[in-house]
Design goal:
The chain is an alpha+beta fold and about 350 residues long. It folds into three domains: about 70 residues, no CATH class; about 130 residues, no CATH class; about 100 residues, OB fold (Dihydrolipoamide Acetyltransferase, E2P) (Beta Barrel). Helices cover about 50% and strands about 15% of the residues. The protein has 17 helices and eight strands. It has a five-stranded mixed β-barrel. It has a three-stranded mixed β-sheet with strand order 1-3-2, covered by helices on one side. Strand 7 and strand 8 form a beta hairpin. The longest helix has 23 residues. It is extended. The mean pLDDT is about 85.
């Protein structure tokens, strides 16, 4: 801006226009920015003013080109030092204050929870299920653990969460029932609280007599992922069971079209559509070890086992490879396969 004002006799408004145009270089491209400058008459005004101040036309053009070219890298150069410092501070916090780091990160971006689960566990940290008395809106820190916030529970919403936090703590379930407004915390929302484990602190009014499998399924439905019933040994057992039954990414990629393959992993996406014949089908995304597989469920298969493809559920899918990914022919959840496997 200073160069435009001193050499080009630009007003503050005109110089600021040049600055804003250069700031759009990455989005618009160099050619569009140059067109804008010529259309507004800024280039010619700058060149004429430089010549009046004793510069040759060649030098004036060179200075103008350098101003425009600077817009292509100036922002990145100007911000590289503070961005580098921020990255260093984030990595330091991630290593030495892991609980605080992940609690802050996941509160800002809850969709990253599923990806963060194994990473957090590998660092010796654990997620704690939502608790009607202990949970905040977002993720919070309890010692070396990360408590899942109430806003992560499906169907709850800000009004219900604010009502619960305002009335905390609750002595028991009866106290909860009598004090919260039913208009804000209705039956559907209470069911979601129950399924997420938020009422477990109340004993029998929680999931006291539920099996680990029932708890895991309810957590997947209400949180999108499961926490219960998996210690480190069990996770290793589940991963080994899965590894022995699915093809590797390399095998999948090298397989020819129409090859029969089996893939497995967590359901991270499902899009249901209606065909021209008014039948339902779906496209799913399965993730395993940061690798993703596209799975197509045609109407017959979607009707037969489409209900298994809940986000957060771990499934094994057998089918044939084609350009769209894997065309599902059979599927089962990992939990069901483990239950049916011979006990050793």
């Amino acid at each position: 801006m200073a160069v435009c004002r001193e050499l080009g006799n630009f007003t503050d408004v005109e110089a600021n226009d040049v600055r804003k145009a250069m700031g759009k270089m990455y989005r618009l491209g160099m050619s569009e920015v140059k067109k804008f400058m010529k259309k507004q008459g800024y280039e010619q005004k700058f060149l004429d003013s430089c010549v009046e101040k004793g510069l040759s036309k060649t030098d004036a053009k060179k200075v103008w080109n350098e101003i425009i070219t600077f817009g292509g890298y100036g922002f990145a150069k100007n911000h590289s030092a503070p961005y580098s410092l921020q990255a260093y501070m984030d990595m330091d916090r991630k290593k030495y204050q892991g609980s605080d780091f992940y609690a802050s990160l996941l509160t800002e971006d809850p969709d990253k929870v599923r990806r963060a689960l194994e990473e957090v566990r590998a660092k010796g940290l654990n997620f704690l299920l939502p608790d009607i008395n202990e949970s905040k809106k977002g993720f919070s820190v309890e010692g070396d653990n990360i408590r899942i916030g109430l806003m992560s529970i499906k169907n709850l919403g800000p009004a219900a969460v604010n009502e619960i936090i305002y009335k905390q703590p609750f002595k028991n379930y009866e106290d909860f029932e009598s004090r919260v407004e039913l208009r804000k915390v209705n039956s559907l929302r209470k069911d979601s609280l129950l399924g997420s484990g938020a009422f477990d602190c109340f004993g029998k009014e929680g999931r006291l007599h539920w099996s680990d499998q029932e708890k895991r399924k309810s957590e997947i439905e209400t949180l999108g992922f499961a926490i219960s019933g998996q210690d480190e040994k069990e996770r290793a057992t589940r991963n080994k069971f899965l590894e022995q039954r699915v093809h590797t990414r390399e095998e999948y990629d090298e397989a020819e079209m129409k090859s029969e393959l089996c893939v497995g992993g967590e359901v991270v996406g499902l899009k249901e559509i209606t065909t021209k014949k008014a039948d339902s089908m779906a496209f799913a995304i399965i993730r395993k070890d940061e690798e993703e597989y596209d799975v197509t469920l045609f109407p017959k298969q979607f009707h037969a086992f489409g209900d298994l493809f809940k986000e957060g559920e771990t499934v094994l899918v057998y089918g044939k490879k084609d350009e769209r990914g894997l065309i599902a022919e059979m599927a089962a959840t990992l939990d069901d396969l483990l239950d049916a496997a011979p006990k050793t």
